[in-house]
């Protein structure tokens, strides 16, 4: 594969953008090598500036659940653009979006639109603190909730990938208010709440962790957290930025039957535009300005073009059978990858939840804790990543990110991916 034009762009970018990118994991730092620069995207594929094609399992890190450049999403955006780009005054699409979210996710009786997942989680913990009058929050090792100061404590995603799970620049006094727990450990959560329960404003969790590879919750774990929060008067916050509308139409809370007090969303509800949202019980959300005293605002929030893209996306994912078909695709992909690894003699396993999956280079039959995820063979993952990329398959460029399938990943795309994987696993075995 030729990468001359990407290489040239990356050289120029490195002089002007920190690390050459506008978001860290894009830089390929942990897998080595240089990123490709995208010219266009369509269906399950990205096309780079050198004319190479990649079957894409990153999906813009989650939003592209119906594939890239979907004609209905594009048409909705084109219609919206004809009416102007931003109003700074209310528009009908915001009401439709709120109606849609509250219908699909019943624990959200009211919502507020924002512009990113980071804004959604920042706002949700401000609300949790404001509503309870308590200041401590609980998060889980390896979970990523955006780059808000309170969350960059033992964080996942790029923070974990680059070995700075707790970032310089986060005031110690604030970091001290963030308590961390090991995910899927029942007793640790019970013990922490027994000790600190009276001071905890809220517990925030990715109900399926997608930022430390992909870790599904153990049976009853989310229920256990629900009970602890209720017993100790803390708010349970599900960060469904990745899982929302993906692991089920109603998100992880529908899939596992646990209702949080607050939820945060992003990615899919923006259809690829910069969007986030948070929502929850009416009595809590009514405390947000201007209905109540807890302040949160946004110049571009509820942007008409972004609402149009998100609504078109939600229409598509609401079609009967959509999530079942995606889940079948994930299984076909992961079963095929496991078979290819076995044939090559490479210790490897996968996790799958709906349209999310995890790839683990390990002897363990399954992986569902952060400690297990970080103990996997990242060098083997990196070799596999490059062997796949060379064969036109783009996986997340880090061993600590979930993969995503979309409805555009048809049999041909999965077949081509598995063919690449059979050769790539042999390369890993030979190394
Ligand atoms: N929460 C989760 C679970 C995420 O995966 C992410 C981003 N990957 C965020 C929050 C932050 O979203 P954004 O990048 O849109 O700020």
UniProtKB/TrEMBL annotation:
Keywords: Cytoplasm, Isomerase, Porphyrin biosynthesis, Pyridoxal phosphate
Keyword Transit peptide: no
Primary localization class, coarse: cytoplasm
Cofactor(s) named in the record: pyridoxal 5'-phosphate
Subunit structure: Homodimer.
Family named by the database record: Belongs to the class-III pyridoxal-phosphate-dependent aminotransferase family. HemL subfamily.
Protein name, per record: Glutamate-1-semialdehyde 2,1-aminomutase
Cellular location(s): Cytoplasm
Isomerase in keyword set: yes
Enzyme Commission number: 5.4.3.8
Modified residues (N6-(pyridoxal phosphate)lysine): 267
Gene Ontology molecular function: any one: glutamate-1-semialdehyde 2,1-aminomutase activity
Gene encoding the protein: hemL
Catalytic function, reaction form: (S)-4-amino-5-oxopentanoate = 5-aminolevulinate
Pfam families on file: Aminotran_3
Pathway: Porphyrin-containing compound metabolism; protoporphyrin-IX biosynthesis; 5-aminolevulinate from L-glutamyl-tRNA(Glu): step 2/2
């Amino acid at each position: 594969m030729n990468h001359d034009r990407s290489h040239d762009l990356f050289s120029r970018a490195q002089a002007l953008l920190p690390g050459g990118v506008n978001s860290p994991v894009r830089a390929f730092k942990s897998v080595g090598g240089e990123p490709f620069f995208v010219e266009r995207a369509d269906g399950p594929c990205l096309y780079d500036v050198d004319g190479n094609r990649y079957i894409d399992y990153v999906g813009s890190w989650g939003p592209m659940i119906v594939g890239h450049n979907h004609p209905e999403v594009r048409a909705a955006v084109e219609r919206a653009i004809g009416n102007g780009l931003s109003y700074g005054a209310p528009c009908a699409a915001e009401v439709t979006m709120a109606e849609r979210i509250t219908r699909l996710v019943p624990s959200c009786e009211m919502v507020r639109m924002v512009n990113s997942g980071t804004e959604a989680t920042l706002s949700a913990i401000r609300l949790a603190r404001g509503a309870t009058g308590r200041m401590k929050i609980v998060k889980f090792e390896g979970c990523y909730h955006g780059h808000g100061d309170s969350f960059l404590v033992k964080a996942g995603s790029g923070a974990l990938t680059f070995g700075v799970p707790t970032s310089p620049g986060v005031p110690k006094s604030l970091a001290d208010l963030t308590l961390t727990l090991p995910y899927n450990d029942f007793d640790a959560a019970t013990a922490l709440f027994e000790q600190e329960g009276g001071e905890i404003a809220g517990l925030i969790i990715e109900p399926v962790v997608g930022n430390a590879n992909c870790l599904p919750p153990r049976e009853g774990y989310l229920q256990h957290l629900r009970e602890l929060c209720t017993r100790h008067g803390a708010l349970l916050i599900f960060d469904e930025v990745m899982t929302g509308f993906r692991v089920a139409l109603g998100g992880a809370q529908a899939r596992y039957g646990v209702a949080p007090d607050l939820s945060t969303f992003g990615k899919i509800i923006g259809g690829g535009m910069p969007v986030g949202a948070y929502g929850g019980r009416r009595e809590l959300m009514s405390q947000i300005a201007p209905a109540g005293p807890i302040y949160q605002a946004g110049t571009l929030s509820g942007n008409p073009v972004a609402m149009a893209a998100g609504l078109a996306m939600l229409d598509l994912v609401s079609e009967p059978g959509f999530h079942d078909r995606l889940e079948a695709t994930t299984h076909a992909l992961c079963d095929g990858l496991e078979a290819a690894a076995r044939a090559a003699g490479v210790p490897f396993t996968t996790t799958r939840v709906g349209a999310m999956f995890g790839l683990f280079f390990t002897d363990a039959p399954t992986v569902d804790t952060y400690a297990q995820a970080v103990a996997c063979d990242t060098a083997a993952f990196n070799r596999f990543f490059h062997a796949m990329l060379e064969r036109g398959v783009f996986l997340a460029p880090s061993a600590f990110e979930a993969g995503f399938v979309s409805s555009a990943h048809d049999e041909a795309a999965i077949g081509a991916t598995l063919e690449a994987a059979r050769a790539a696993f042999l390369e890993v075995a030979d190394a």
